[in-house]
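> call design_seq(struct)
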């Protein structure tokens, strides 16, 4: 769903998913309450994943359009409490190194 946001907070309908700020100029504030400076900034061309949250968004410095999809965009992301982290397996064996460097 697309939302046009101004400097006033608006609620988003989704309670799980990904918010994308496709603007090249404007920053978006994302918060769990409609209070200025209570959330996190979503800078231009970035995204934010969330789970089981009622969120509010506003444009910090003007008016912008944001995209919200009801799913997590990044594969391998573990979501918890509205934040996300990447689950990466960094374990290498001698066989892996042999295959890479062809000893």
């Amino acid at each position: 769903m697309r939302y046009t946001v101004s400097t006033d907070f608006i609620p988003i309908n989704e309670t799980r998913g990904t918010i994308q700020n496709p603007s090249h100029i404007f920053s978006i504030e994302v918060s769990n309450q409609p209070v200025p400076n209570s959330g996190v900034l979503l800078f231009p061309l970035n995204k934010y994943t969330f789970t089981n949250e009622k969120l509010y968004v506003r444009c910090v410095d003007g008016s912008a359009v944001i995209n919200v999809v009801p799913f997590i965009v990044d594969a391998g992301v573990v979501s918890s409490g509205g934040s996300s982290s990447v689950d990466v397996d960094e374990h290498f064996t001698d066989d892996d190194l042999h295959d890479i460097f062809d000893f």
